[in-house]
Amino acid sequence: MGMTDFLFTSESVTEGHPDKVADQISDAVLDAIIAEDPKGRVACETLVTTGLAMIAGEITTSTYVHIPDIVRETIKEIGYNDSAMGFDWETCAVVTSIDRQSPD
């Protein structure tokens, strides 16, 4: 390819795709914290795979939210409610690894 040529690629995923599920979970955690602590800071990522949702990152807040409950409720709202799907809100493992953010 010459200097004026380039290759453009992109990925588009649909509703229910693990990337979309992960984004919705991360958004739900952020929303729950900001609802109680508008000055809260959230930098967390979510990974979703067969039978597992993992949330990791850093959160600084004056409130407490029970992240596993938020994860499960979000998965339920999306519609993963049957273990035959390989992933459902009642039986999936939820792993959290959350630290406090540095003051700066």
Write the layout of secondary structure elements.
Blueprint: H1 18-36, E1 41-49, E2 52-60, H2 67-78, E3 93-99
Parallel strand pairs: 2-3
Antiparallel strand pairs: 1-2
Question: What labels describe this entry?
Answer:
104 residues, alpha+beta, GMP Synthetase, Chain A, domain 3, three-stranded mixed beta sheet, flat
What does this structure look like?
The protein is of the alpha+beta class. The chain has helices at residues 18-36, 67-78; strands at residues 41-49, 52-60, 93-99. A three-stranded mixed beta sheet has the order 1-2-3, covered by helices on one side. A hairpin with a 2-residue loop joins strand 1 (41-49) and strand 2. Helix 1 (18-36) crosses helix 2 (67-78). The longest helix is centred in the first third of the chain and has 19 residues, at 18-36. The radius of gyration is 17 Å and the shape is flat. It starts with 17 loop residues before the first helix and ends in a 5-residue tail after the last strand. The model has no long low-confidence stretch (mean pLDDT 90).
